[in-house]
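Saturday, quiet lab. Running sequence design on the structure tokens for the scaffold JK sent over.
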């Protein structure tokens, strides 16, 4: 048995060696630089450092310059890849990079010139990623720092200190010591990129402490860290004056610096400069647009805010819709919601309520409409099965791992996780959907679904205040009622729900029963606050219009507010809908329900507020004679859901 296994290993290694040399031969014989780079890229993504070993050995043994030139080109490609450059559209490319990084650290020992780049690749992974081995990466950085110090490599020392600061690998005190060590060495560094990267990381580190102290109310400490940051920023400006490339890279941090210095106009101009410099080539200018758009609204420059935000909505939309894993969906959803909500407020402040309503609605139902369109596409079932598998993998549910690659033909690919392989298949299967499927309904489309004494109330919250659009039958380009309550910001209204700093509000009364909060008192505070902010002006308008039935489309956490209990709204028949799209769809349905309801609450055991909502819904429907089936907590399994009565 041992002999057979050994022979099998030798056979695989021989095939491995043969295929690597095919790549080398193909690259050497390439007619164009693009073709040669393609072969090198395929070899790198398949064999990693093994390809480099073979190529270096061939270059060492041969006296032909072409092999050494190819080896140098491969090394440049390897370094750029380890620093984060994407070479393909593969969904598993990032993990292939990590496999190579781990192999590099484990296989090349402490005297490893690639150790810093490999460690950086690992630390760039999101928190919670199974391959984000912080201890391994941290030790690799420390080893590299020691190696550079022993060899008198000043630039290597500063670069490694830069990474230790960037990834917060050390304690605050030790990090400040490392920063001082780097500052003592920086005058001996001639490479402008290394100098700039070091200064930028220090600047970012100081800005972080300034923001933290500002949020904690420690104004004195905020000023101290801000001044430290300003000193580094001035050094950057002095050293890079006239160099547009460096200045572009510094603009992000300078914009943040001016923001914490409470100079929004200067911050907005910095973000505008980023947009102008990166709009027409590769770069994340959409992030700068998100920041500038918000600042323009702060400054009351609404038209500029619209001009900045509208072009980047499709970018944030795609990032949101194509996200699969929970964390990615949440993060992309937050950014998308910020962009479309701020855009809605900018339009509302300009009196452009048609656009305001469309953008506000987009943030409430877009992903639901997209998933519906996916289900109805010709690959819908395949896509949903892949999403189901990805969701299970993201929650740690084990799945059978069927290898689709062999070690000889794809050394790195054989080590790729099942999750990355499923993501790659998901990317290939996802169809391109018509943008018409994702357009938010207009005011007139909403109004057409209403009867004579009915209205839809759309709410939006932001730092700018609260916006409300009241749509009645016959409305076309303008809602019958439109309000902007700038005194009632999102933060101020949130205080009614949370209880502010005391954390004794309705949210905690329901979500944290162990706190023993007086629920009635918390509910009274919530109702009193929303009655003053929204109930009184809204109720007065609805009565004036002769409305009796109201469908409220809340925004964010306002779905937890019992609007029907507000004194000024108790006389209305109040319904809640998650979105205008959902409201219209419900009116178009002709299917008659036979007075049965299935209520699911807290299926993931971390949604305590849903229990209160389920109880209220169940009591309400039961009072009207409905047959209620409830699946609560552990009983809310997928099997139970599908087997529940229709």
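Result came back. Writing it out in full:
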């Amino acid at each position: 048995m041992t002999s057979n296994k050994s022979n099998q290993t030798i056979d695989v290694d021989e095939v491995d060696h043969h295929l690597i040399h095919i790549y080398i031969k193909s690259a050497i014989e390439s007619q164009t630089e693009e073709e040669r780079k393609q072969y090198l890229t395929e070899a790198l993504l398949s064999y990693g450092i093994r390809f480099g070993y073979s190529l270096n050995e061939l270059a060492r043994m041969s006296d032909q310059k072409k092999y050494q030139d190819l080896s140098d080109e491969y090394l440049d490609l390897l370094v750029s890849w380890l620093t984060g450059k994407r070479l393909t559209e593969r969904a598993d490319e990032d993990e292939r990079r990590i496999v190579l990084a781990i192999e590099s650290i484990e296989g090349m020992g402490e005297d490893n010139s690639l150790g810093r780049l490999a460690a950086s690749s690992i630390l760039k992974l999101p928190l919670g990623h199974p391959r984000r081995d912080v201890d391994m990466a941290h030790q690799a950085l420390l080893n590299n720092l020691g190696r550079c110090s022993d060899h008198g490599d000043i630039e290597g020392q500063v670069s490694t200190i830069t990474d230790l600061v960037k990834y917060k690998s050390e304690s605050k005190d030790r990090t400040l010591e490392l920063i001082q060590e780097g500052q003592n060495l920086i005058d001996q560094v001639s490479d402008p990129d290394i100098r700039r990267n070091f200064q930028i990381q220090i600047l970012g580190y100081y800005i972080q402490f300034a923001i933290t102290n500002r949020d904690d109310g420690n104004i004195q400490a905020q000023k101290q860290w801000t001044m430290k940051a300003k000193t580094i920023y001035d050094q950057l400006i002095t050293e890079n004056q006239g160099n547009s490339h460096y200045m572009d890279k510094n603009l992000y941090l300078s914009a943040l610096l001016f923001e914490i210095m409470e100079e929004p106009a200067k911050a907005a101009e910095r973000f505008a400069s980023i947009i102008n410099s990166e709009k027409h080539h590769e770069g994340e200018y959409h992030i700068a647009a998100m920041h500038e758009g918000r600042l323009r609204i702060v400054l009351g420059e609404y038209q500029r805010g619209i001009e900045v935000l509208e072009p980047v909505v499709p970018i944030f939309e795609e990032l949101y819709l194509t996200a699969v894993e929970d964390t990615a969906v949440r993060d992309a959803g937050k950014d998308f919601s910020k962009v479309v909500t701020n855009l809605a407020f900018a339009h509302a402040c300009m009196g452009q309520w048609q656009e305001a309503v469309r953008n506000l609605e987009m943030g409430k139902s877009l992903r639901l409409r997209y998933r519906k369109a996916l289900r109805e596409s010709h690959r819908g079932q395949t896509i949903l099965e892949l999403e189901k598998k990805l969701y299970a993998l993201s929650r740690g549910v084990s799945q059978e791992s069927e290898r689709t690659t062999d070690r000889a033909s794809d050394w790195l690919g054989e080590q790729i996780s099942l999750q990355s392989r499923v993501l790659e298949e998901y990317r290939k299967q996802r169809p391109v959907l018509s943008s018409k499927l994702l357009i938010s309904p207009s005011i007139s489309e909403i109004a057409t679904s209403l009867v004579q004494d009915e209205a839809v109330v759309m709410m939006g919250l932001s730092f700018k205040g609260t916006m409300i659009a009241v749509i009645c039958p016959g409305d076309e380009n303008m809602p019958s009622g439109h309000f902007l309550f700038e005194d009632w910001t999102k933060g101020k209204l949130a205080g009614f729900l949370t209880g502010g700093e005391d954390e004794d509000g309705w949210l905690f009364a329901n979500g944290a029963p162990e706190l023993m909060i007086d629920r009635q008192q918390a509910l009274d505070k919530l109702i009193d606050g929303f009655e003053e902010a929204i109930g009184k002006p809204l109720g007065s308008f609805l009565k004036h219009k002769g409305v009796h039935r109201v469908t409220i489309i809340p925004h964010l956490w306002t779905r937890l507010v019992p609007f029907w209990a507000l004194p000024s709204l108790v006389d209305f028949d109040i319904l809640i809908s998650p979105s205008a799209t959902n409201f219209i769809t419900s009116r178009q349905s002709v299917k008659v329900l036979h007075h049965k309801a299935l209520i699911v609450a807290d299926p993931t055991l971390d949604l305590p507020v849903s229990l209160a909502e389920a109880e209220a819904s169940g009591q309400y429907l039961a009072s009207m004679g409905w047959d209620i089936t409830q699946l609560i907590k552990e009983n809310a399994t997928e099997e139970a859901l599908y087997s529940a009565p229709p």
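Notes for JK: The CA atoms of residues 447 and 474 lie 6 Å apart. Residues 2-28 form the longest helix (27 residues). Ask whether to fix the surface positions before the next round.
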